[in-house]
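Folds abound. A case:
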Amino acid sequence: MEIEELTASHSATQHLLQLGHKRIAYFTGPPVTPWAHDRFEGYRRALREAGLEVDDKLVFQAGSTIEDGTNAALQMLNEGCDATAVQAVSDLVAIGCANALLSQGLKIPEDVSVVGFGNILTAEYFRVPLTTIRQPKHRLGTAAVDTMMTLIRGEKVSSKRLPAELINRKSTAPPKSQNKAA
């Protein structure tokens, strides 16, 4: 039982593209995990579909913790890659990123939009409520129990992927250049 990681990440990138962002940084997760790979692939596909190349200068190895997100954001700022948005592999990484951006005097979403993944409780109650991907945790649990019961009965189990949805909160907006034109 798993969620459709690639499709969910693709929709997060599309959200940023539809707002007008072209320089979207991506904070990756642990390289050995399949879910982190799928989320990165969703980002890459959305950019390609929009006619944009994946710029390696916008991809930062972040890991999976708040501290990892903080470090990736500071690296991004030090490298001056001019990203107008950040898509993070998880909400914890996004929160670390957002904390670092705010502590450097940047405003979210006025200066930089930030999107997470997971819809952890903290995401909704963060200083700037985080736009994120909601995973169907209850449905995942129900499906896992159904799968376990099927296995107990000795029946064959098929793989299922459950969809996730974008939760649009206050951490995303059109890039500054578009705000001035409005």
Summary: The chain has one domain: 2-136+163-177.
